[in-house]
Amino acid sequence: GVSPPKAVILFGPPGTGKTSFAKAVAGRLGWPFVEIFPSRLAAPGVAMPAALREVFANLNELDAAVVFIDEVEEIAGSRSGVPSDPAHGVTNELLKLIPTFRQHDERLLICATNSVSSLDSAFLR
Hints:
The chain is an alpha/beta fold.
């Protein structure tokens, strides 16, 4: 009678198997494993929030998927409270995209970080 989670945050030091665990979950479910690399989202002439929107738009074409974001603090770090801070915009965008992603039954978002204390409080909720 327990509802499965739609999102999970794994945290711990490097080398503890966070990525391997996410791949194993995808394998067990029989769903495609999609890894998002925050460091690769930034491209010349493309703002990171726009790149993030494009990635999630492409994910919407999949019926089922385990989406893994390693080093999620790069796109969900604590916001400074200053709207002009570049990190503020990308964190806001991720927070807008997650609820739509989670509406589908056969999708799971797994995020990993080495530093859970650096994540934005709204993201952790």
